[in-house]
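Hi R.,

Here's the input for the glutamine complex you asked about:
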Amino acid sequence: ISSVELTRHFLDRIHQHNPDLNAFISVTDELALTQAKAADERLQAKTAGPLTGIPLAHKDIFCTKGVRTSCASKMLDSFIAPYNATVVEKLNDAGMVTLGKTNMDEFAMGSSNETSFYGPVKNPWDTERVPGGSSGGSAAAMAARLAPIATGTDTGGSIRQPSSLCNLTGLKPTYGRISRYGMIAFASSLDQAGPMANSAEDAAWLMNAMSGFDERDSTSVDRDVPDYTATLNDSLNGLTIGLPKEYFGAGLDPQVAQTVESAIKHYESLGATLKEITLPNTSLAIPTYYVVAPAECSSNLSRMDGVRFGHRAEDPKDLMDLYTRSRGEGFGDEVKRRIMIGTYALSAGYYDAYYLKAQQCRRLIRDDFLKAFEDVDVIMGPTAPSPAFRFGEKTDDPVAMYLEDLFTINTNLAGLPGVSIPAGFVNDLPVGLQIIGNYFDEARLLNVAHRYQ
Ligand code: GLN
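And here is the predicted structure with glutamine in place:
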């Protein structure tokens, strides 16, 4: 099959199913077919790499040259990116084909894809339920076979939680592994890009192409990129798996617990040993995150002022009116809530009480993990506390929504890698198993994930 044929197949499926699912904000037919033709030429000239000609979907948070990059906000509805994010550039160079830009929570703030300016995304497993968020469009597109692989970003769980709710393999790499250049910033010290795939093997191929040092991102780490596919089949004999007791207690749906526990048991038959561990500061993660993330987002989003790009209010009276109305009209409720919390936390006199305190808690959370990794190779637990929930179920209660990320947020605060893999079903809805690794241990995570499948 040629890349053009493959690309047409997915474009047709998108045009057929997207009106119902709303997984894509933009479909880039023309760009896709141009890239597919170029890929076919490379294939014929035998200058192709392993990913050449494979279509993919990008979360609409990655700047894509000449294509609207909205971050699912009215604020950027008319923004055409003038350059490519490093992730997009690298995958283009690998010969991949961009099918379009996927829906998401506005500026990646949410866990259900319900905060998008373009409307909610349906979960293909049950269209009355959410696909998770914030990378909900990528997850739904994958689950409905509208794309064979997709990119996502994860600030507090946004790759792993939608992967769990849509039965995918989603990896959040170590902070610094993948360049953030051209990825619209939410909370810069937590944001990481990663693959959302049908298997650990597919995720490994995408990791090979996405990872690496980038001098345009000051937090990018200069460290060799291993071949993530080379160790997928390594034996798990002697692997020690840590089970944090805090991940199996309050807040976890008992049926999800059962499914995750039986998935973990399976690893014993593959030669692994299970060990109960403790991450005593787990309960600090959500309050810490909801100081750090809003504080950073309030600063990052200050660039959306209606002056240089994005939404601009009509007929402003003066500069203040331009700022106030452009931002008032351009941002949705959740984004405004975060900006207000963050601005408050950073304001003079409160910094020590909130932001500084949160940084100290962050260190405690990180130290818990480092101590645990003295005794175990990987940590396992649930990805999300429950399977996909219904639309509207948590929208009136921000705290209930925030608790959705109970088991994912701590790894972002620590900067560690984590992967969610399909673990089974509860009432016909997918449930994910989360595997957390030490810094830069993505190859081992993918190996452990691959051996399960
Ligand atoms: N759900 C979390 C939030 O709303 C995490 C989002 C993310 O990882 N981008 O902030």
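One thing worth noting: The longest helix spans residues 352-372.

Cheers,
M.
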